[in-house]
Design brief:
Elements: H1 16-21, H2 23-35, E1 40-42, H3 59-64, E2 68-71, H4 76-84, E3 90-91, H5 95-99, H6 107-117, E4 124-125, E5 131-132, E6 149-150, E7 155-158, E8 162-171, E9 192-197, H7 205-217, E10 226-230, H8 239-248, E11 259-263, E12 274-275, E13 279-283, E14 288-291
Parallel strand pairs: 1-2, 2-3, 8-9, 9-10, 10-11
Antiparallel strand pairs: 3-12, 4-14, 5-6, 7-11, 8-13, 13-14
Length: about 300
């Protein structure tokens, strides 16, 4: 994997305080990047306030300049802008937390970036990595090394057989988009596979259960074909999340919805890349997840 001729957006190095206080400048960076003659855009990091960029975004600029856009966490809001513009974007690596992982990018993350962004073959089955880490980065310590632990793979919460659907999702902040310009019409969830991730600092097992109930109340769970849920950023993995999700799904009509948990995307390392709108498959009987199409031409 090689990123050639890397250039930073005009305001991206002006410091955290400046960028926090100037959402318009951040939006201008994004518009600049889409208009620039570059092949792809990668988010520096997540955060919690990219929704503030929305008033300064011209969706027509995104629509007229399709290109690779990748990032995760609060970058969900930018993905929704891309989705509204009709682009396939990629829920995957951020620059600082994936490509700039201390010492080097994990080989598994590197493999799936290459496979998804730089190869037009069918992406195929997503095998779990042998190890994972939930450690935060320490960029001040040159000798810092993440601790990696044995990965036990995916767990089926409920469901049987094989289901297929187009990928859509992000963090539990999907529920906060109601009433904003980024709220998706409910029909966008029809026959999809919903992917969800978040962090323990923001979402407790109870919060996760409440989010699943919101998905049901809003009508999403009865429209989707299945759901994949990432690891949470802790170890050993907290079984209370699985229990809360399973209890929340114990509703007539959705208790057999295929739900696979423990996938490697979002706030753990290493991670896969999930392309929005691309057909995927959950194989409940064999605890497998596959992406059935290429995401790039």
């Amino acid at each position: 994997m090689a990123f050639m001729n890397v250039i930073e957006a005009p305001n991206s190095l002006r410091g955290e305080e400046y960028l926090k206080n100037n959402p318009k400048a951040r939006a201008e960076d994004l518009m600049w990047a889409f208009e620039k003659n570059v092949n792809g855009i990668i988010a520096n990091i997540g955060g919690n306030d990219s929704i503030r960029l929305l008033p300064f975004i011209d969706i027509n600029i995104i629509k007229s300049n399709p290109k690779i856009f990748i990032g995760y966490s609060d970058i969900l809001n930018i993905h929704m802008m891309c989705y509204k513009a009709g682009l396939i974007s990629f829920y995957g690596a951020n620059l600082l937390t994936t490509l700039a992982e201390p010492r080097q990018i994990h080989s598994y993350s590197r493999y799936w970036i290459n496979k998804t962004l730089f190869n037009n073959d069918i992406i195929g089955e997503i095998m779990p990595p042998d190890e994972y880490s939930a450690d935060s980065h320490d960029y001040t310590n040159k000798n810092f090394m993440k601790r990696y632990h044995k990965n036990k793979g995916y767990d089926l919460i409920c469901g049987t057989g094989i289901v297929k659907g187009r990928l859509i999702g992000g963090t539990t902040r999907l529920s906060e988009l109601l009433g904003t310009e980024l709220e998706l019409p409910i029909e966008c969830y029809d026959s999809s596979i919903l992917f969800i991730e978040d962090i323990i600092e923001c979402v407790s097992p109870k919060d996760m259960g409440d989010f699943i109930k919101w998905l049901n109340d809003y009508g999403i769970l009865r429209r989707i074909k299945g759901m994949i849920i990432s690891k949470f950023n802790e170890y050993p993995q907290n079984e209370n999340y699985k229990i809360a999700i399973k209890n929340a799904l114990n509703i007539e009509g959705i208790s057999e919805l295929p739900v696979l948990i423990g996938l490697d995307f979002g706030h753990t390392s290493p991670k896969i890349v999930l392309p929005y709108g691309v057909m995927a498959e959950i194989d409940c009987d064999n605890n497998k997840f596959s992406i059935l199409e290429s995401a790039v031409i």
